[in-house]
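Lecture notes, part 5. Sequence design as translation. It can be helpful to think of inverse folding as translation between two languages: the language of shapes and the language of residues. The source text, in structure tokens, appears below.
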């Protein structure tokens, strides 16, 4: 093991870090509007189905690779299946690209958090709110400043190391994040008109389950569990040796799904309580619609909400940043400080371009979520399902009785269903 790799101090820290990686802008920002657009509860069912039958097996495959090799994505693949080590480079590159553009959106959340404290959007109308969002994203110095701020916070946490930085931050912030979200849900559900929002979120409309809905549910379940680029792999390489990977994975997926639903319950009733707002507004929902809603609620609600968005984004961005840092430490023998500085500077360059050029931003998003992540996931399942001896995954599952019992199901999904399904998605995405 490379010197200075570090490890999580406890099982709780490992679960909180993994949940922190999974729970992010994807849950708060994308999930609620996707549910709204694609048939409410029908979409939620589809999402849970994909989580259980495709994403969880991929999660385990990635986790097993990391936990048994105790290395970064490239080192792990090189040790277990040298022919596939190119996918390690691809994962690290993807993690780097996602860090860069995710930090741009992270910067917006930092901006809104600061504004919510200084009441910069008090009593706004929808038009004014849209103008604020537009001016943030169109004002070069502001969008760059908050991006650099967010990336800097990410780098500082990663710099503090696996145990104190990533583990320590997640252990404290994740429980706090749940409490903050619960407060907003309670406040949101007590608003007049909340029932309509719940109805919109929960009423199953199976007629809306079409090709795009299926693709979104699947893509969202991959993105939300942080799969395919080596985040899960890297974090699991820091897990205590005797740790129960099966239980950790189940808890992570459970927390992730519960949090996505909570975010939906926080956002939709609030949107419906203000008449004339568009629930299917898409990506602008969180940054344009919600400030209008929350200023009407007043008090500390906007501050708490945007702090929650910021914390959720940070615990995810550190997991991607750490993938690249782990590679530099393991493979290039760098010290953590130097590795963090290097990744910070490189992400600064790419992120700045993403912040100023929306086309580059979308291209980065498209390439990573449609191509790199799916190919990465495909390689992870092939390596565990077909290349390493079956005893390796079995050993990880058999450390818990329920894991041992479910192993045959997992094995069947991993060996047959996942590769075929993911290959089909990869081909569709590439066409
Ligand atoms: N899962 C996070 C979210 O929901 C984002 C994220 C973190 C991610 N690490 C990732 C997405 C790796 C894809 C790949 O916001």
């Amino acid at each position: 093991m490379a010197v200075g790799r570090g490890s999580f101090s406890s099982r709780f820290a490992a679960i909180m870090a993994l949940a922190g990686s999974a729970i992010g802008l994807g849950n708060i920002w994308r999930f609620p509007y996707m549910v709204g657009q694609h048939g409410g509860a029908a979409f939620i069912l589809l999402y849970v189905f994909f989580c259980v039958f495709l994403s969880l097996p991929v999660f385990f495959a990635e986790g097993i690779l990391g936990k048994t090799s105790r290395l970064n994505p490239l080192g792990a693949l090189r040790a277990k299946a040298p022919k596939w080590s190119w996918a390690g480079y691809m994962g690290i590159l993807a993690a780097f690209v996602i860090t860069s553009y995710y930090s741009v959106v992270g910067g917006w959340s930092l901006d809104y958090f600061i504004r919510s404290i200084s009441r910069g959007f008090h009593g706004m109308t929808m038009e004014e709110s849209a103008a604020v969002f537009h001016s943030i994203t169109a004002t070069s110095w502001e969008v760059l400043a908050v991006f650099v701020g967010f990336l800097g916070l990410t780098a500082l946490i990663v710099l503090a190391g696996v145990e104190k930085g990533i583990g320590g931050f997640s252990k404290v912030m994740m429980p706090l994040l749940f409490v903050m979200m619960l407060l907003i849900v309670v406040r949101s559900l007590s608003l007049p008109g909340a029932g309509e929002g719940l109805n919109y979120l929960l009423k199953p409309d199976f007629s809306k389950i079409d090709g795009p809905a299926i693709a979104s549910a699947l893509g969202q379940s991959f993105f939300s569990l942080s799969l395919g680029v080596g985040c899960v792999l890297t974090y699991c390489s820091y897990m205590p040796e005797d740790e129960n990977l099966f239980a950790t994975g189940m808890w992570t997926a459970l927390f992730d799904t519960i949090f996505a639903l909570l975010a939906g319950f926080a956002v939709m009733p609030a949107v419906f309580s203000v008449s004339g707002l568009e629930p299917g507004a898409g990506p602008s929902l969180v940054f344009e619609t919600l400030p209008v809603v929350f200023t009407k609620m007043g008090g500390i609600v906007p501050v708490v909400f945007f702090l929650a968005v910021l914390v959720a984004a940070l615990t995810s961005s550190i997991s991607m940043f750490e993938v690249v840092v782990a590679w530099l430490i393991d493979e290039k023998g760098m010290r953590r400080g130097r590795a963090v500085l290097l990744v910070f500077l490189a992400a600064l360059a790419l992120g700045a371009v993403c912040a100023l050029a929306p086309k580059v931003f979308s291209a980065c998003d498209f390439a990573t979520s449609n191509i790199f992540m799916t190919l990465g996931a495909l390689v992870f399942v092939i390596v565990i399902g077909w290349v390493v001896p079956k005893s390796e995954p079995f050993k990880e599952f058999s450390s818990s009785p329920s894991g041992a019992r479910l192993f045959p199901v997992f094995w069947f999904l991993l060996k047959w269903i996942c590769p075929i399904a993911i290959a089909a998605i990869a081909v569709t995405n590439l066409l």
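The translated text above is only one of many valid answers, since several sequences can fold into similar shapes. Residues 140 and 203 are 42 Å apart (CA to CA).
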